[in-house]
Amino acid sequence: MEKIIFKKFQIESKTFWMMFFGLGFVILIGYLCSHYMETEGHYVTGMNNQIVWGLPHIFAVLLIVIASGVLNIASISSVFDKKLYKPLAPLSALLAMAFLISGLAILVLDLGRPDRLIVAMTTYNFKSIFAWNIFLYSGFAGILAIYIWTMLDRNVNKFSRPAGIFAFTWRIVLTTGTGSIFGFLISREAYGTAILAPLFIIMSLLYGTVVYFLIVKAINYFQKTLFSEEILQNLRKLTLLFLFANLYFLILYHVTNLYISKHLEFEKFILLNGGVYTIAFWVGQVVIGLILPLYILFRDENKSESSLMSATLLILVGSFLAMYVIIIAGQAYPLKMFTNYEILESSFYDNVIHTYIPTIWELGLGLGGVALSLIIVLIGIANLDFLPTVIKSPEAKKAVGSDS
Amino acid sequence: MTIDTKLSRRGFIVKSISLLSTVYFIPDIITSAQAAKPLNEEVNSDTKWAMSIDVDKCAKGCTACVDACVEENGLYGFDRPETDSQWIRKLTIKDIKTDKVKVVPMLCQHCENPPCCDVCPTGASFRRVDGIVMVNQHTCIGCRYCMMACPFKARSFVHENLTEQVTTAPRGKGCVESCNFCVNRIDHGIPTTACEEACMKEGHKAISFGDLSDPNSRVSQALKTKQNRRLRADLSLKQRVTYSNI
Amino acid sequence: MYQLAIRLLLLIIFLISPDIYSHDGINHSIKGKSKADDATQCVEPTEIMQKEHFVFLYHQRDKTVINGLRTKNHSFANCIDCHVSYDEVGEPIPINSEGQFCQTCHIQTAVNIDCFSCHASVPRGRKPEAHISLNYNHSHDHVSKEIEKLVSYVEGAK
């Protein structure tokens, strides 16, 4: 069996500290923003009684979805026993942990009473999918820690496969749980369908894969050892596959809604006359997030890295807008309280399509969360042996092995 | 100064009929008094609080119920209608087929299967055994998931620091709140909500509140005389607030 | 060793000093006058109240919110009603403001209280036990009009 040598991030001390303090500064800003929101109350944000979940939730859900998806690489290596991916597995688990923690941090800091976190951790209503998610998230963090340990410590290396399988199962359940947060909302026409759960899983796989690619490229910028051509081609194939799957589930979701006559009005709103939401859907979620990347990946005959990179960036922009459409547009469409009546007037905006204009505070909190995930990754790879020094395809490694 | 104590014939008829009318109203109050529980007793499921709203009696332009609710629960706002709390509000609605316009008060519907309680992660949103759906603000963490789940937009999130709360209705920043059928009144043996009281004082009597298990309560009477409907019956939430003439 | 003993002694003296138990039945530091000033004892013996008031409050709080128990003895509204001080013009002073009943101890023991972000810190609004009867003023008007009609009908028939 060939040995993979894992090492710490080889980076100049100056560069490390610059990145560290840069990210730390963004985190500090994020924390101050959340502190301001907490002491003043949420009226300083763009959120209100109509749009109750806003930008922080877009960031948080996106980060959690990415966290689940980025573990994909480790899953392929451990669960499906692909040797090629083995060197990349520990980093994948670290990324999952980092994104999960930061997603949760944003969620918690946006609570009306973040000081009552202890209540959230000790009082449970087991009928609530949200309460289950608290378990799923904290459990996932614990399992990831064990999984990383089994991968990095040679003494317990033999347990890495069962740990990986367990982590894989758990994260499928976790993303199902995240999707179900919306899927179980029967009252809102945008949600209340179980298709949201598989849609979220597919989204997580897609976003996780491209984020993984992006992070590895960033590390590669400082330390050119990581990517073999073969892995690159595999990531490209995976991205293509997930793009198709995503498109398929998105179509399925909307076609299903079109057939549920109760949801027909909402579908018209999203697909045709929803103004900014319709634009965000078609231009953002569909064209930028799915069609253009597909086009770029297909058209590039050379299968170059740069085409994958541009697809990645487009997918990430699309991912953000997809969350915007799911979370904000879903709330913007007014509730239908009466079957035979149309609401003419209300002091509580029951008859209007709500608008949401986020403020700097929410944006600060969201960006702080992203910075938190990056700083966790930075500290992780700089202090523990996460990065494989040499990655070659198994054939190449075999050759090396037979030589020695 | 002399006081005419002699009862005229006309006066006699007036008084006797008035007396009859008083007697007519008394049963309400007596049965309510019986329904009231002692302060040291816990609520039980024998009592089933409910409300019936006769939409045809609800007057256009009248906001008595809303004003009474604001006063009872200290729901003063900050002139920021998008973030200020509303526990009860009036909607103007139009029949899609006949174009007939009606006004209707909208408040927490106190479902027997409340979606808000199902989704609440800490169980702060709960249904009291006597049917009142309310928020335990000691354990509410302000996640607003219940607001996402409610089909009637009955809940409000307290968006800013409050200082002028009333003793009988504690409420504060960072928690979600909604109509609780004036739970403080009910527990102190006053079986009428502020909105019902106000509606009666205005003489509209559109709102009837009371205990469903008491056949003489105002709500039971209202349910007997008119066919009541639940909003969004497709969701099978079994609301305790029902509407007639809608 | 000697120094340590002195320090320990000082600490003990500090801990048992009456400063900590500022409310010992005498109104010494609190501005204004409250109903409790005239009472000899709270709902439980003073010593127990000093140490365990929050236990009572927590206990009753869940019983009240979840089970609708409204007994007066450990009711938070009642605590405030009795312990809130009134200034010269008879205006209640928020009980959590500096130098008032709650805050004198809680500042000293550095225990932050979160009660008053939601609960009224002075008695405000309707009294919980206030009597409300359904007032049929207008309906009476309505009824008396009907009666008038009836009377005139009866009289007219004569």
Total strand count of chain C, please?
A: 3
Pattern of helices and strands of chain C: HEHHEEHH
Could you give the order of strands across the largest sheet of chain B? Answer: 8-1-10-9
User: Treating each run of at least 4 consecutive H or I residues as one helix, how many helices of chain C?
Assistant: 5
Nearest-integer average pLDDT of chain B: 87
Q: What's the main sheet of chain B like? A: 4 strands, mixed
Work out the oligomeric state of the chains in this entry.
heterotrimer
Q: Short description, anyone?
A:
The complex is a heterotrimer of chains A (404), B (246) and C (158). Chain A is mostly helical.
What does this structure look like?
The complex is a heterotrimer of chains A (about 400), B (about 250) and C (about 160). By secondary structure, chain A is an all-alpha fold. Chain A has a domain at about 5-240 and about 355-400: Formate dehydrogenase/DMSO reductase fold (Up-down Bundle), CATH 1.20.1630. Chain A contains 14 helices and three strands. In chain A, helix 4 (about 90-110) packs antiparallel against helix 6. The longest helix of chain A is centred in the middle third of the chain and has 31 residues, at about 230-260. Chain B has one domain (about 45-245): Alpha-Beta Plaits (2-Layer Sandwich), CATH 3.30.70.20. Chain B is about 30% helix and about 15% strand. Chain B has helices at about 10-35, 65-75, 115-120, 145-150, 185, 195-200, 220-225, and strands at about 50-55, 90-95, 100-105, 125, 135, 155, 175, 205-210, 230, 240-245. The longest helix of chain B is centred in the first third of the chain and has 27 residues, at about 10-35. The termini of chain B are far apart. Mean pLDDT of chain B is about 85; it is low at about 1-5 and about 20-35. By secondary structure, chain C is mainly alpha-helical. Helices cover about 45% and strands about 5% of the residues of chain C. The longest helix of chain C has 22 residues, at about 45-65. Chain C has one domain (about 1-155). Chains in contact: A-B, B-C. At the A-B interface, helix 5, helix 6 and strand 2 of A face strand 2, strand 3, helix 3, helix 4 and strand 6 of B.
